[in-house]
Amino acid sequence: MSTPPPPGYSGYPVQPGYPPPAPARRPVVVWDLVTSIILLVFAVVVAAILTFAAFFLAFASDPCGASTVCDTDRMGVGFVIALFGPGVVTLITVVVTVVLLIVRRISFWVPIAGILLAVGVWVGGAALVISGVPGASL
Question: How many CA atoms lie within 13 A of 39 on its CB side?
Answer without folding.
Answer: 20
